[in-house]
Amino acid sequence: MPKMTFGSREREHVRRYTRYYGTKGDAGPSISHYALTHYKEWEKMIEEWQTPILQNSSLPSWYKSALFNELYFVADGGTVWVELPEDSDISGGLRSKDGGLPGQPHIVKEYGRFAYLEGQEYRMYNTYDVHFYASFALIMLWPKLALSLQYDIAGSVVQHDPTERLNLMSGHCSPVKTRNVVPHDIGDPDDEPWLRVNAYMIHDTADWKDLNLKFVLHVYRDYHLTQDTQYLKDMWPICQAVMKTEMKFDKDGDGLIENSGYADQTYDGWSVTGPSAYCGGLWLASVCVMCKMARLLNSDSVYEYYQDVLKRGSEAFDKLLWNGNYYNYDSSGRSLSNSVMSDQCAGHWFLRASGLGDDDDDEFQHKVCSALQTVFRLNVMCFGDGQMGAVNGMRPEGMPDRSSVQSDEVWVGVVYGLAATMIHEGMLKEGLHTAEGCYRTVWEHLGMAFQTPEAYSEKGIYRSLAYMRPLSIWAMQLALDNLMSWLKRTAINKSMCLIF
């Protein structure tokens, strides 16, 4: 089956393996022969990849199972991997005003286009707010595919589709795609992905506060892990464009964006008003990496601009959201504004994964650790007898936030990201315990092996089987790798001190 079409049947797509086996559809014997003569080599390579982790006695068995077995979704998530047509331009012939993005990037031409569904029930390709979590599996194991996906997202940023469409939640109409905004997804497999993006119809995602920020954080993390300077240069104008768009959400000019009062981010059923822990933290982390990228690319004026924003925004974030123990859910002053959100340190998590965040002042580091300890004490240990992971929202008195269906859920992929953040901050025991609760609940108690859901509740009710976000468990492996490297460096430094 070398060729495929999506539901609209407008375009014929050629699978990437056809560059080796042709497009006639007669390569079954050749493919089978190749597999039968190479499978021993493949098995050896798989063993070499897995053995260091499987034989590491300091890692628990459940973690080894989750780490490798959650990768089922990379292949089983409605996945497509196709060649880029010779006449294609990933941005539709458009460019940001600063240029920078080639029509056919080398990585996309060489490694093809890759897309996977948000979930087998949530039928959208490369859902970006969720890919933010899942992307760790790609960037660590198939980095060229991760970068190729990023180029496709970047190409869609500059596009505009003025077609008016009804948003199901508000009942209002808005354009399908707004220029200089990151899309929610690159399309529905029953339509024509890449050609028509934003299959999501619940909200107008041009008003979402997290998508642009997640793109910027992706870019720097990917650069940090691959050291691909050309990629960084290509993405820099797109980063500037989406951050300029994002700046309009700082309505009072204090350097910190505000949420709109409805569910305008990945928690699309949990409303948030004013500056918030989740989006505010992502904003500050994005501003931080803009400063870092500006330095790397010798853009002094951009650096100075975002340094000023970072200083003012950090002060506002602390003043409006820090309560002495953790960051409040939002700053609206509502009765539930001081709920404890398990994902409140998501921005700091990406900074740590990008090799940043360890040179902050001691006061800020203390606040991050205090917030994570509060999450562990309340969202983890006061929920499901401390054996079900971390609930998204928890009240300070130790009861789940039941203001929405999503605040009362555990999101498996969020929990793995939370666990990675804890490990980055030296909370290894707490991080492993937090993640273990999800694994035991899904793979053992609910019996959902190889169909990990997006969410479940304390009563065992689940939502959206076979979901993208739990691939974030590879963020835990990155955190563990970094922890081991730090321990080795520390041991060397101690040895040097003893010698001298």
From TrEMBL:
InterPro entries membership: 6-hairpin_glycosidase_sf, 6hp_glycosidase-like_sf, GH116_catalytic, GH116_N, Non-lysos_glucosylceramidase
Species whose genome carries this gene: Electrophorus electricus
Domain Glycosyl-hydrolase family 116 N-terminal: 1-42
A Pfam match: Glyco_hydr_116N
UniProt-recorded name of the protein: Glycosyl-hydrolase family 116 catalytic region domain-containing protein
Occurrences of domain Glycosyl-hydrolase family 116 catalytic region (ranges): 112-476
GO function term, MF aspect, one: beta-glucosidase activity
GO terms, biological process: carbohydrate metabolic process; central nervous system development
